[in-house]
Amino acid sequence: MSNNLAQCMSGDNRMSVGGPVLRAGLMILVLLGLSIAAILYFLDATAKRENRLSEISQTHLVETALEGTISSLTNRVSDVSFWDEAVSEVSREEFDNDWGDDYIGVYYNEAFGIDGSFILSPDRQQIYAYTPDLEQLTFEGLLGHYAESFFATLQDAGMHFSYSQYTFVEMEGEVFLVAGAPVTPEDPTAEQLEPAPRSVIVLFQKLSEGMLADISDKYLVDRLHVVDMEVDLEERVALEIKNIDGMAIGRLAWFPARPGDDLMRDLFPKLILICSMLLLFAIATLYFWTRSIHEASAAKTLFLGKVSHELRTPINPIVGFADAMAHEIRGPLPEPYKEYARDIAKSGRLLAGLVEDLLDVTKVESGALRLDETRIDVKSLVDSVCQAFSIRPQERDGSKRVGEHMTVSCAFSDPLPALRGDERRIRQILMNLLTNAERHSGGSEVMVDVSAPDGAIVVSVRDNGIGIAEKDIGALFQPFSQLGHTKKEEPSTGAGLGLVLSRELMRLHDGDLTLVGGEGTGAEFRMIFPPERSVS
């Protein structure tokens, strides 16, 4: 299969098969690549969207969990503060620590996991403290310079309802949630409603690993933990923890779930399988299409070869008999009949030339054309061809204009190396180019310039005709294509094979035939032989 593809796309078939097949193959691969890229793009976009939605969802969950923790602590401190018995106990001259342990400190620690508690007198004196894991810790030591503002806010609360306040504080690398509430009677008397300093109960709870692990399990968040503000989060997501002044003192971080990545891992192998199947289908389609084109091209080449051979057989005697009649070999003829004979001979030679071109084209397409390479004196070859065209009458469309000649001027660079190639084929190329220039030069001078830039050999044939429109250049080297003709020009007598064959012959010499110029500026064809073809 690969050999067939390679053969179809090789230089031997490039005139009819290689170009379209290569373009079709590239188009299939490009479309397949674009399709895969589009699928991957949308899959990646979907995965990122799923990851982002999951991150937003988990952020809401963590916010909800944090709000629930805050609400739990503030509700508990409000419950114990909005209590007549608490009002009575904190009013004693000497506070009963056993009562504080039974109803606040030890009770809340064992029942709800509250790490510690304080009770402050109306003048902010600490009358009770329960801090089992943090010995010697005081209210002032816990809140630092925020202690005064925190206490003042609670003191300013109304006397007829329970009010609580919370804040986060950082101490020795740990983050604590602190909540407080003023001690308030359940059914205050008129005297108790008068604004006055009150005692305050404070509860605090550390954001410990155990507490955060429980939240992680409950809210399905991966490894919830506290990090400093300066720590690089890398792949983590974080929620800022702020104190009473709104200043961030740390972050609550976690590793977000990435359902989009799971989606990619699940679908990517399937996508690879589908793409592989599509690629195999594209290759198979290209193979069978290429084979059918190659078979059609081979059939066409065989047909043209047979037709050309069949046409050439009767042409030679027709031309021979017409020449004999024109030269009155078998006796005199009236002048009109002699003119008819000359026209028959000329048309026969033209047809013979077309048949030869068809044979050469079929040989190129089938890979049967071989070069007979020798050492060529380029100057002598070009001189002989130019001289032949300079003395040849211009004949177009069956009319003969005796005495009119196309002027061909030649210029050569010095020194000019010899060329390794097929002299007959190079002469054929140059004759085709001069014939093309003769048809479209409008009787003006045609210039042939031979140079050897950087070791290469370049033969340029330039005319001052109407040139070729830029939009037509792409079809210039297509078989049976005739371009550049306008109403001002006489109809072409060619079949549109000369330039196509010339370019293929140049490529067999490892060179190329190119066009320089545009519409209205004349045309310049360049035969470019690579330095490897130069012989010193």
Low-pLDDT residue intervals, each spanning 5 or more residues: 1-17, 393-404, 484-491
What is the structural class?
A: alpha+beta
Gyration radius (Cα, Å) is 50 Å
Count of discrete alpha- or pi-helical segments spanning 4 or more residues: 13
The helix content, as a percent range, equals: 40-55%
| Major sheet attributes | 5 strands, antiparallel
Q: How far apart lie the N and C ends?
A: 44 Å
- Overall pLDDT metric: 82
Q: What is the overall shape?
A: rod-shaped
Number of strands: 18
Strand order of the largest sheet: 2-1-5-4-3
Indicate the proportion of strand residues: 15-25%
Descriptive terms for the model:
536 residues; alpha+beta; 5-stranded antiparallel β-sheet; 5-stranded mixed β-sheet; 50% helix; rod-shaped
Describe this structure in words.
With 536 residues, the chain is α+β, with helices and mostly antiparallel strands. It is built from 13 helices and 18 strands. The chain has helices at residues 2-9, 14-81, 84-90, 97-103, 105-112, 139-143, 147-155, 209-219, 259-326, 335-366, 378-391, 423-440, 498-508, and strands at 116-120, 126-130, 165-171, 174-182, 200-206, 222-227, 237-242, 248-255, 373-376, 393-396, 399-405, 408-412, 418-422, 446-451, 457-462, 512-517, 523-529, 534-535. The protein has a five-stranded antiparallel β-sheet, with helices on both faces. Strand 10 (393-396) and strand 11 form a beta hairpin. Helix 1 (2-9) packs across helix 9 (259-326) and helix 10 (335-366) crosses helix 13 (498-508). Mean pLDDT is 82; it is low at 1-17, 393-404 and 484-491.
